[in-house]
Amino acid sequence: MAAVPLSYIARNLWVRRVTTALTAAGMALVVYVFATVLMMSEGIRATLVATGQPDNVIVLRKGANAEISSGVARDQAAILETLPGVARDGAGNALVSKEPVLLTSLPKRSTGKPSNVTLRGTGPTGLALRPQVRLAEGRMFRPGSSEVIAGRSVADGFAGVALGSTLRMGGRDWTVVGLFDAGKSGFDSEIWGDSEQMLQAFRRAAFSTVVLRLADPTGFERVRERVDTDPRLTLEAKREERFYAEQSEALAKFISYLGTALAVIFSIGAIVGATITMFGAVAATTE
Predict the structure, then answer these.
(1) Is residue 256 within 8 Å of residue 84, measured between CB atoms?
(2) How many CB atoms lie within 10 A of CB 239?
(3) What is the pLDDT of residues 240-260, one digit of tens each?
(4) Are 129 and 211 in contact, with CB atoms under 8 Å apart?
(5) Residues 6+ apart with CB under 8 A from 96
(6) I need a surface site. Which of 112, 189, 228, 269 has the fewest CB within 10 A?
(7) For residue 62, which of 265, 259, 237 has the smallest C-alpha distance?
(8) In the chain, helix, strand, coil percent, each to 5?
(9) What is the distance of C-alpha 160 from the center of its chain?
(10) Tens digit of pLDDT per residue, the chain (287 long)?
(11) Smallest Cα–Cα separation from 142: which of 186, 189, 196, 209?
(12) What is the pTM of this model?
């Protein structure tokens, strides 16, 4: 049986160039969707994992799976500051940051529609605990003031977030005095201000989380055991790296499953389209 000449195949594809192009486009769409989903999933995982530090510990309310849903009372935060194994600075102060984490709504720069932005109450210690965060423009907010600093992603993506601008949040005006670069970590999408001022403005009585630095990176289990066994603390301690890895895992899985389902649907459509095109070509040759 003689082989079909390549020139015949090329002429056949040219004659049916529209259906051929549509079939190829359908298959390319499947590959594009699947590749995009994989990139999004891996990007989310890399961004959130980069947010944590290996010698930092984050303490949340037991059962809380996110900072927004957590709560740490003031007396509990004070106990955490006195735990053995917590690192201290040159002045003997515990490297502990007590942080409320809140949500506010700001207009998107591209559409003008409101979207949620994470607010984090912190202070100089909080900045010291995150070496990947550095001020790119302006200055650090003053403790006890209604000043904030914004991540690069927030400044680029939301209207009115610029150095010197005023934001209305929590029934109060806040002045943006600095922009920071968090090294492509999750903090790039946050706005930071003074912890006590954030609590007052949003009428919160408790912190969301407490972040502390370990004096010895290998001493995590001892700190975790103390938190677990202290009856005054209904809290849970996790390595910061592990916490953000868990955060990324759930979201990355959801995106992967959704993207895979879409890719399967598009694949079926592409196969059906290719089959119809093939049968049409065969039928045309037999007429």
Answers:
(1) no
(2) 20
(3) 888 877 776 666 666 667 667
(4) yes
(5) 77, 80, 81, 86, 125, 210, 211, 212, 213
(6) 112
(7) 237
(8) 45, 25, 30
(9) 22
(10) 555 566 655 666 666 666 667 667 766 776 776 677 667 666 555 555 545 578 899 999 998 888 999 999 999 999 999 999 999 988 888 999 999 999 999 999 988 899 999 999 999 999 999 988 999 999 999 999 999 999 999 999 999 999 999 999 999 999 999 999 988 888 899 999 999 999 999 999 999 999 999 999 888 999 999 999 999 999 999 988 888 777 766 666 666 676 677 667 766 766 666 676 666 656 655 55
(11) 196
(12) 0.73
pLDDT digits (tens, 9 = 90+) for 162-191: 999 999 999 999 999 999 998 888 889 999
Place of tokens 């769409």: 29
Cα angle 97, 100, 102 (rounded to 5 degrees) comes to 145
d(CA 224, CA 201) in angstroms, rounded, equals 32
Angstrom distance (rounded) from CA 161 to CA 197: 19
DSSP string, 177-190: EEEEE-TTSGGGGE
Find all residues with CB under 8 Å of 233, minimum gap 6, and list them.
76, 79, 80, 227
Beta bridge mates, 226: none
Interior/surface letters 140-165, b for 16+ CB within 10 angstroms, e for the rest: ebeeeebbbbbbbbbbebbeebebee
CA-closest candidate to residue 98, choices 15, 199, 2: 199
